[in-house]
Amino acid sequence: MENDSALRDSIFISKATPGDDAFVLWLAPRLEAAGYRVFADILGLDAGDEWRGKLTSSLQERAARMLLCCSDETLQRRGVREEISIAEDLVKQLQDPNFIIPLRLKPFKKVFGIGGLQYVDFCPGWAPGLTSLLKSLDRQGVVKAGGGVIQPAWSAYQRRLAIAVERSPETLTSNWLRIMSMPDEISYLTPTSPADDALLGRLGRSFSLPLARFGQGFLGFVSPLEMEEHFLPVGRFRIEARIGLEDFMSDGTGALGIKSREAHGLLNNLLRQSWEKHCVREGFFAREFSGATAFHVDATKLGLGKRVSWGRQGERRNSMLRNKAKNRVWEYGVSATPSLFPYPHLKLKGRVLFSDLTGPDKTVVISDKRAQFRLRRSICSGWRNKAWHGRLMAFMELLAGESPYVDLAVGSGDRITLDAMPVQFTAPVTARQTHQLGEDAEETDRSTLTGFQEEEADA
After folding, report:
1. Distant-in-sequence, close-in-space partners of 131: CB < 8 Å, separation ≥ 6
2. Is the pLDDT confidence value at 6 over 70?
3. Quick check: 79 pLDDT over 70?
4. Closest Cα to residue 292, out of 355, 345, 338, 330?
5. How far apart are CA 376 and CA 186, in angstroms?
6. Phi, psi at residue 390, to the nearest 5°?
């Protein structure tokens, strides 16, 4: 037993490939800087190695500790489960209950063999997690056989994975929609008779045009006549004040006691409502995500696997907004966050919603938020930037139709006009792409359709 322990001079990291690679590339050099010798399959395997045998022998014969990367995705990998099984035998053989040290990278369900072990928590941050880990290794007297030398291969490996930058300009498409024009004035409207506050709020939220609640009434761009039918239970409205929109954005209004910061919040509220009410009118279906409402393409807008053509003449591409993957239906959608800086615009964010298929193109949205999260992690992680960009452009093609603009009705015949083409920037350098997929090849690439899955042997 003593001779066996004397040979154990390394820390073995059990991980999933490629899911935990970024974490291990961060952790391993820091452990080496602290004096430990580290083995991880990223660098521990050479061309021609019988990789499973080398991993097994390194764990069985040289490891003083096994650091186990823990997340539901990692712990489901066959290779990781095999390494846990070997490590459990070593716990008994070495009579060392601390041989396995779980590293909590994400919340995870307990699995047989390690359920009762205290983990080192890296969820709040990798740096505090490392501090806790080093304290544990020091308390347990784990041998420092590395001499404080960091293998240069770690940084070399990272450089090989890096994207080369070329000194030539590149046009980049953002997720910003520029607001081209807005009404000249904003109005403050109040009921002519006393009104129940709760009723007023409900009617304002359900109105077809944007209204921002303020004081005893609303800020908006509508006329009292447009409000009359919907607000019949309350009665008529009158315009208490009209404020120039440019002045309102920059200074607020002293007449109503609204300062600049509050004016920005009220105007952003109106912009968000304008977008959301327009999407509803255009037939997109709403779904609540954390902090935002997204609008998705369903069967009424597009069939499964159908493609939307988008792009300038001669540069047309095709992208899917609905398809099947892993026996589920995914539907692409967009949420929008207004901003007035550095100029008025909407920031768009792509959202993906998963449903069970219950009949020919009939779906039921999966209500379990954890299941939605797991599906997004497994399926959408394989979508490269080109795929996400294509879906955003296809969504805007459906929303704008033949027009280069999107007009959001706000009342009194006025509108907020958006440029349907996201804002483009020119970068002084170009990132050389490692995936040169032409035309709409993203839609036929295996990872785009089914979600990127490494072979089980690469666990």
Report:
1. none
2. no
3. yes
4. 338
5. 41
6. -60, -40
Tokens of 89: 């035998």
Label residue 170 by pLDDT band (50, 70, 90).
Answer: confident
Q: What are the φ/ψ torsions at residue 271 (nearest 5 degrees)?
A: -65, -45
Q: Using one digit for the tens of pLDDT, what is the confidence trace for 429-453? A: 887 665 555 544 555 544 444 333 3
Find out whether 292 and 335 touch, Cβ atoms under 8 Å.
Answer: yes
Residue given tokens 């499964």 in the structure block: 304
Q: Which helix (H) or strand (E) holds 91?
A: helix 78-94
Contact 23, 127 (CB under 8 A): no
Name, in order, each residue with C-beta under 8 angstroms of 315's C-beta and a sequence gap of 6 or more: none
Model pTM above 0.85: no
> Contact, 93 vs 84, CB < 8 A?
no
Q: Is the pLDDT of residue 5 over 60?
A: no
Strands 38-39 and 10-14: parallel
* DSSP, residue by residue, 293-322: EEEE--TTT--TT-EEEESSTT--EEEESE
Query: What are the tokens at 167?
Result: 């000194």
